[in-house]
Design brief:
Chain lengths: 951, 454
Amino acid sequence: MDSSLSIVEAKEAAGTMASRFWGQGDSESEEEEEEVESEQGSDSDDDGGRGDAGRSSGGNRYLKNQEDDSDESDTGHRVIRSLRDKRNEEMRSIVDQMRNAMKINDWVSLQESFEKLNKHLEKVVRVNESTEVPKMYIKALVLLEDFLAEALANKEAKKKMSSSNAKALNAMKQKLKKNNKQYEEQIQKCRDHPESFEDEAADDKDMDDDDDDDADESDAEIEDPDKIAMSESEEERDEDDDDKEGWEQKRSKKDKLMDKQFLKDPSEITWDIVDKKLKEIVASRGKKGTGRIERVEQLTFLTRVAKTPAQKLEILFHVISAQFDVNPSLLGHMPVNVWKKCVNNMLLVLDILQQYPNIVVDTSFEPDEKETQKGADYNGTIHVVGELVAFLERLDSEFLKTLQCTDPYTKDYVQRLREEPLFLVVAQNVQDYLERVGNLKAAAKVALRRVELVYYKPQEVYDAMRKLAEQPEDSLDDDDAEAGDEHQAIDDNRGPSPFIVIPEVVPRKPTFPESGRTLMDGLMSLIYKYGDERTKARAMLCDIYHHAISDEFSVARDLLLMSHLQDGVQLMDISSQILFNRVMAQLGLCAFRAGLINEAHGCLTELYSTGRVKELLAQGVQQSRYHEKTPEQERLERRRQMPYHMHINLELLEATHLICAMLIEVPNMAASTYDKRRPMSRTFRRLLEVSERQTFVGPPENVRDHVMAATRALNKGDHQKAFSVINSLEIWKLLRNRDHVLEMLKLKIKEEALRTYLFSYSSCYESLSLNQLTTMFDLSEQHAHSIVSKMMMHEELHASWDQPTKCIVFHSVDQTRLQGLLFQMADKLSVLVESNERAYEARTGGTLEGVPPPRRRGEGQDSSNMGKWQENFVSSQGRQGGGNRFGYSGRGGGSGQSGGHQRDRGNQGSRGGYGGGSRFQDGRGRNQSGSSARGGDGGARMVNLNRVGRV
Amino acid sequence: MAEHDLTALMAAQLDRHLVFPLLEFLQEQQLYSEPEILEAKIRLLSGTNMVDYAMDIHKSLHGTDDVPEDMVKRRSEVVSRLRSLEEAAAPLVAFLQNPQLVQELRPDKQYNIHMLQERYQIGPDQIEALYQYAKFQFECGNYSGAADYLYQYRALCTNSERSVSALWGKLAAEILMQNWDVALEELNRLKEIIDSKNFSSPLNQLQNRIWLMHWALFIFFNHENGRNGIIDLFFQDRYLNAIQTNAHHLLRYLAAAVVVNKRRRNMLKELIKVIQQEQHSYKDPITEFLECLYVNYDFDGAQQKLMECEQVILNDPFLGKRIEEGNFVTVPLRDEFLENARLFIFETYCRIHRCIDISMLSQKLNMSYDEAELWIMNLVRSSKLDARIDSVSGTLIMTTNHVNVHEQIIESLKGLNMRTYMLAKEHRGASSSSSAGNSVRIAESTVLRRQGLV
């Protein structure tokens, strides 16, 4: 290696020297490249011919240089001619090499040849003095592409490859993909008109025949020239056909044989032959050496030669299930074109079923051997085994899977999404069929599938889909012309015309009612009548979702409450639970848009209480630092993900939740400065605490910052600033009735600002005129009056109106801090006494005489206080008891634990240095307790160890 | 005022015959044009056997003596059918009309059927014929006869389904005959059956409840104890749910009943909650009035709504029932409603005000100044209102009595001393001294001492 390198360098040096000598600076770099390249070529190739090529290229260098430089050399003319020929010839030889490599399936050498080819291309182009890429090259690319596709599809063979070969194959795949992009047009052209490319190739061949001799000779060492000629001619013939077909035919020799067998004479083919063949193919399923795609091809061919409609139907069912088999893994998805073919097959099935109503599809009936022999004119029912609904459901889930796997920001995704109507057509037709047959239970299942494709679409999106579906076929095909052509090609050039011709009776386009609501209603009533429990529950959820996005909060709420879905949701399967979560989120958004802050908060708070919204809505995987997921779990989770177009915007959701929490919590905090009333939204409180601990407050960046900034403003009663901060959020443009919502929000903020202000500063006033309040908070007199009255009525504000002067007169009944504490203490004492009494009763078994019956608990504020105190009590006990508590949290696993940890970390991080002392004590206390509880379970020990490490 | 008319909604849940009173009422009110109502009546009658009545209406509607052919035909049909049914039921009817024979019947159904079969050759066919005959009588408008027959049929019938329909028929007949006491009994009987019976589907049961509530309106607004009855019935969970699911318009009657009923003020809170929940699906001036007053504290709005309420009440067949006393025609419910509503407004107003201008108040209460002053004075005197009148400035001054904080604290601690003492004594008697009790006592005494300082 060293030596070769040094040679290169030396040569380079020589080259540059030479060029300098020649005084030609601009061709320098090119030369260098060439040199290196040729050097490499001779290094890596042990082929005899290569040495020659290397030599010749070396010669060329000089020749070319001469040509480039000037015409000073008198032999220039002759040289140019030879150069051109030589280049072309070299290229051809490389292509030939590639062909050979293909034949023996040698990807390593193929890859090498490909690289050589590319490098050569440059030269050829330059020599030919045109920008056009030689057709030969394009042809080679097409060839390669097809071969690659075949190799990739043939998984069995791939598995058998040696590791180096497989690696080369993969490398090739990527290179080719990248490379072919620039020549896309020409490749397409080549595929469309192979003959025009062929011509040139043939020409070249003729021309080359004589001076190709030596090149061929070098090949001859490897293969017999006759053989090459044969294979070449074969290939040429194949290329005349559709390319894809070409390779498929060539590959599956067995298929070809079968062709022959059936091609002999159509009249000779009998039902028995077809049936036998079918059984044979079906039996081959899963056996080694049978390609999945191959099977599909064979079966498809069989459908053409089927003798009776029933048989055709039977074979079609096999085709469909074979198509589902194409993709073996659970994670991957079915190739898109296979999916499309599958859809077509389904439609065909439906055509047959419609055309011959006496054919019945079911699974329960055990058909006899010759059932499908009964011809089209047979009177009476013919049973064919098959399950339309299962096929349909599989089709749907495959569609979903492709969307899950595709990157939503690519064109592919949009493309795929546009194929949704295709599925809807099938679903609609299947449902129609089932209804006609009277299998309403199955129809309900299909209806659910349809509902699940429609429910998340607001009217605008629905309209767009409808328009797309109703477009004439041509314009639809423009985008996927390739795919369309493919279908055509398959249908046209494949063997004899089918024996059983089924007209397209089933509509090929979905019909949609004007509004999504009507469609939903129609499907819903069917499902409610005939669906099973799960179908009904899911349909109900979809219905609620749809009502929620159409801004019908009250209807959605009533449906949810009346159906009692909330009670049973824990028992449902996970995807239904996800759907339920989505419904709750959407319901919250809907309530928010309608200005129902409390309801919205109620809907959303649960979603946000765990901090795992993404997971709950299946919109992305959340990495948890403390809870490693097993790969198995992760895979499961990934499979549950919602496709991107069904996502609920998380920022909007978070903003909605936080704003609701703010509107509720800010006045609540202002009202309860002394007694820490139970917070309405713990999440919000925690966020607020965190943000208050920040030393510097920067301008808000994300949603959370915005709301926190607004909260600070609202706390001071500055409603204008609060609103402007909220208003500056980007997400509002996602809302349909944006102005209306913002207007509502403004009003709400003003209201809450007024309330907060009154709570905070009422103790500073003796009286306050309504006029002043209205100007301060920019509210109408009536509105302000109503708000203040409400506060008075609910005894949140100790004041009353002075009607003649329109003033609020405050009663100075507010407790001082000491009094407030006294109240708390009194409550706690009474709890203590009560528990004493209870303890006594428990011991003696009798009641105390002469003691008044214990005070009834649960009188408004009172009870909450008590509850809180008890909480304290329990927690302090826990601290004393130590280990127990940790044990619990450790065993609680997952969410609980991580939540606790996070909080601890938060405290630690933000409290900074001076808080250290107390933390240390705290930590020590816990350590002690931990050691006293040594011997507890593993969870406890682990947590304690953590703590030791951190303190 | 027609937009607040509920007749169309109500009629769907009522028996044909029960709709008549509503139409009669509408005719009196002249909310709709006369021919329209007559037309409706004819259509209504076409489903019944009261052909003669339909003919009369037709004559008055078109001002002719001619009667359409089909009516005449129908009349003869009805008559012939009546004959045949009468014949079929004759043996049993004859038996039942003889009081001596009836006395032979015992409470035991099986025995009765057996006895009838044995001695009088009256079998199930005759009993069935009795039911048909009674039904036919009802459809002909002979309610008292129908009621009698149905009563007797129920004593004999064994089919529970049939028995329930007979009960419905009896209830309708009693309502139409305005025997409110009997009707109320039947109503309760029916309610029990509906609540206890196993229905094929919950929807069915719901529908039955809704029917029951609608039919009950006739009774509740006529029977003297009906106002309690309606609140009792409608506020039962199942019935309230039924209202919220499928019969929102019944909220009007519930609201009116609650406002009028002084003793059931405690239901107001619940009612308002329901009204708020259902405000998107049903609202009328009465519910809006309550909403204005108790949700928004918008007194002007409440005032406004109250005026509309009056119209609604007058035009409602149940609420606007008239009573003629001599030359006066009064609508008792309207008066009560207005009086109570006024009191509601006033009460709420007083609660959040310290000082009110009486002239303004009189305006709000739709009274003259003197009237209002007198009214307030009476309230103050009967110690319903804790206020004084400042007659110089013409204002009403409320006395606010907030409980002193100290008193509150002392109040809350009063019992503890005694209880702890008892506990400690018991405990000491049992074993050693109770440290907990002592500590509480100590804490308490410090609290009390501190209060002295505050």
